[in-house]
Give the backbone structure.
Amino acid sequence: MISYRLNSRFAAALALAAMLAMPAAAQTIAITGGKVYPVSGPPIENGTVIIVNGKISAVGANVPIPAGAQRIDATGKTVTPGFVDASTQLGVQEVAAVNDTRDMSARGKDNIAASFTVWEGLNPNSVLLAPARKEGITTFVIVPTGGLVSGQAALVDVVPGTTTDMIIRAPVAMVAEIGDPQSVGLGSRGELIVKLRELLEDTKFFQTHRDAFDRAQTRPFSASRLDLEAMIPVVEGKLPLLVSVDRASDIDAAMRLAREYNVKLMISSAAEGWMIADKLAAARIPVLTGAMNNIPAGFAALGQRQENAGLLRKAGVQVALIGNAGGGDEEAFNVRNLKQEAGNAVSYGMTWDDALRAVTLAPAELFGAADRVGSLRPGLEGNVVVWSGDPFEFTTRAEHVFVRGREYTEKTRQDLLIERYRNLPGTHNSPAPR
């Protein structure tokens, strides 16, 4: 039987390293001399970013340095907001093959789990959080999976503490999946849309007949009371419906449904989104997608192409980049590869500025948190990364990562593994015998 437990000494070393690297209390930080990309404004050569008590207090080219500030020389380097991954199971999935480390799905009633709040299962001690943060990911959206309506998503910062400490905003979207009818025991895509339409109809009826429902004087509904209550903000247009779908015709069906019920729609994955990019742009429907996949995962994604994100953005669609379009082999442990996702998007037609926005301000805007994260502006959280060079180049490192004004330098599990195996006897890295 394979054991997934860490070696006890290794686990102890990891815990000790994390404890020794716990950041000091928030203080005044001055990042000077770098090329600063606020994202919300033009780049600033030889710029300065000041962070005071966890918040950005000033950004500019001629900013006075507060007395006693900790200075970080970013000369020749790039300074950006912390990256935001707009769709991941980070923190609610540890090992894909181990069931009791998977907390991103709910059974629900008839594949409807609208009341499921995925962040309630977030593990703040996940060993996958530190590697993501070390690569410049300071904020992410936890998205539930499975079923017709998967549940509600939340936006969190990668900070130590409890789930309450981490949460920026919850919920930020209701998540649905309409690409695979067999996965929810239905016979066709058309039936998926019918079931989703029935849920929206039942929600509207429930909303105006609560008293009759409480007296058990209403017809049966397609969902439970809690799920219907959770859907009310969706039909009111207050909470976006984030639909995971790939085929162009399925995206079009979701758009028709959104128009019919005045739902605020967002699309994720969207392998064939480029085929109807003009319609998505005209309807002002944002898309969360990636740029790493060029091989169709199935018949629903025959039009998959790496130029997808660039073509969507060129058409005027607001795009947020996510790891491998959310449907490939990049699981939670590879959230840190978001910068490669952006680099590939640039290689396949997206402008560099649009790619930076797609991993910072765009997702912050989409999920209603642009007043907290996503750009470098006074008053926002001190989520700042100093890169050794172009953040989208493979060899670039995140040299300094600040989240809410604190720098994190703890050794990750990957760092400890490198140290453990670097100089094993008989390897080319071991010292030569004398």
